[in-house]
Specification:
single chain, 30% helix, alpha+beta, 9 helices, 27% strand
Length: 288
């Protein structure tokens, strides 16, 4: 079974389209959907076998009138953005306005912003409602959401993964850097949002074998001799052993029992057996 995936224009978040036959929808089609924000236009990005936690109900394919209204609303949203930005400066509010958005039915105007503290914007909302004559909703978002909405250039020289294709944000910790044998220097792996880059999470499955191996520094018995594990390289599927008089690089299959690949497959489906789970959670608190 496959699912239709589309992207909202305001947040760029990907969601699952429900209530429509797949054969009627093609990639890049513009749809009118019903979401928790109201009626809005979304763009189909393709099909996926993985369901999405975010869902919206299909109403119809966007007509020329829908598209024209959407474009008009975008222009009005730009004017509302500038007006709101000026008012924020006038009231001296400690918040950064990221984006404004008007739903297709023009009933509500959303203002997305970031702030390090709680903001009292009651007077701001009164001014906005009086000026726009619509329902106003202020939504505080995180720095990663802001980058997903606006885009940027990452350390790789390309736009961030969250802007291109990511459907959700994973918790990334220093443990991910350590497990992947990378230099323990968070600044080298920090994205434009100021958090550790999400792509570190994409590599986790390649290093799961370290969860079923003894840790580096452990002494084990190998070929009737006590040896010390110096280094584990999951990508090469090798382990470097210290035999006292020499170092030797051996294949994982010589260290692990027969059929260990089946254990790795099981670990990929479940993260609860990670021996460093509690440490990961603590690290995640610092960088989430």
């Amino acid at each position: 079974m496959s699912y239709i995936k589309a992207r909202f224009y305001d947040t760029r978040k990907i969601f699952q389209v429900e209530g429509v036959w797949q054969k009627d929808i093609n990639k890049n089609d513009l749809l009118v959907v019903k979401s928790e924000k109201g009626d809005e236009i979304a763009k189909v990005i393709g099909y996926s076998k993985e369901p999405s936690p975010a869902k919206a109900m299909f109403l119809r394919k966007a007509t020329e009138e829908d598209i024209k209204r959407h474009e008009e609303n975008e222009k009005k949203a730009e004017e509302a953005f500038q007006y709101c930005k000026n008012k924020i400066q006038q009231y001296g509010l400690d918040m950064k306005l990221i984006k404004s958005y008007i739903t297709l039915d023009s009933t509500r105007v959303f203002f997305y912003y970031t702030s390090s503290q709680r903001i009292d914007f009651r007077n701001l909302v009164k001014d906005l409602a009086k000026y726009l004559k619509k329902r106003i909703e202020m939504r505080q978002i995180g720095v990663r959401d802001a980058i997903q909405m606006m885009g940027w250039i990452g350390n790789c020289g390309d736009v961030p993964c969250c802007y291109k294709f990511a459907e959700s944000f994973e918790s990334i910790s220093l443990r991910d850097i350590e497990e992947q044998n990378l230099p323990l220097s968070p600044s080298k792996f920090t994205g434009p949002c100021g958090r550790l880059v999400c792509c570190l999470g994409f590599e986790r499955d390649n290093y799961i074998v370290k969860n079923i191996l003894p840790e580096v520094g452990t002494h084990i018995c190998y070929q009737g001799q006590e040896v010390k594990i110096l280094h584990i390289d999951p990508l090469k599927e090798t382990v470097v052993l210290d035999k006292g008089d020499k170092k030797e690089e051996v294949k994982l299959e010589l260290i692990l029992p027969f059929g260990y690949q089946n254990a790795i497959k099981s670990c990929k489906k479940c993260s609860c057996c990670r021996k460093t789970q509690k440490e990961d959670e603590n690290f995640a608190i610092l960088y989430e």
